[in-house]
Amino acid sequence: MAFLELDRLAKRYGDQTAVESLSLSVERGEFVSLLGPSGCGKTTTLQMIAGFVDPSAGAIRLDGRDLAAMKPAKRGLGIVFQSYALFPHMTAAGNVAFGLEMQGLPKAERGRRVAEALALVGLAALADRFPRRMSGGQQQRVALARALVIRPHILLLDEPLSNLDAKLREEMQIELRQIQRTVGTTTLLVTHDQQEAMALSDRIVVMNEGRAEQIGRPHEVYERPTSAFVASFLGKTNAVEAAIERGATGTEAVIGGIRCAAPGWDGRCVTMTVRPEKVRFASPGEPGLSGQVASRIFQGAHWLFQVETAAGPITVVRQNAGEAIPGEGETVQLIWRPEDVALRRPLERAQ
Q: What is the distance between the alpha carbons of residues 208 and 225, in angstroms, rounded to a whole number?
């Protein structure tokens, strides 16, 4: 039995559907991210789990218990909001202790647990500091300590890093994952940041228009998107139309000199998707897709190319390894491995 189970969960506001028939099973200790654009239903889902919003249909079960039947304060959940929601008149220690006071823990036990939580997030030396004298990253750590100190069944994170600058956000991603692994708390994160979801999660739920488009491990969802929306939302992707032909070993998708096995596909064509970092420039004599470099942009760790081909523009990302690379205007042959390709219906388009 899953630790947390969402069973055909739905939320409707009049004629508008925020979440539609969402089913998800989360194991104890797992880190799962709800990923999608604004308005996709991810925050509404989190709010239903927290008890701030009542479901229109479906069930929420925690360790076999009906969570929807319990008041929010009785659910045993730790929550970190986008704004952190710290009490400005309380010190870091006071903020962290608040939940324990509500639980009625003795003062000595509160002090010990608060000290442990602040040490866990690296703020032991700032216990007496007020939020206004803390950086954004420090405030985020206090909010995380406050959520963890009550030893929640589940930790809910609602865009907790979105207010931080890029460098600090990256540092906090590493720290957050390390803390979660140390504590072992089952965690559900809401985010619109694809890189954040892939860096932190055991599994990702990609949401669109209230539905789960795809659920899987980060590398599986990235490498094998099951819809045009997932392919386009989770990083950059190239989508080109390939012809379906009968080859010596069965049905193949063919574009230029590139041939990929396409078992089970019929019709005249199929959409072939491949990530930009999987495309390389062919060596002399290798069959590939001919094109001309329209632009070449240096981005530090890698080069970004836009190549015009008969199948349409192809984006290529190559690591800055110091090797010779083609310049703008040069004719090139592009190639990619069959195992790096995902196929989908030819008329499907990203929304």
A: 14
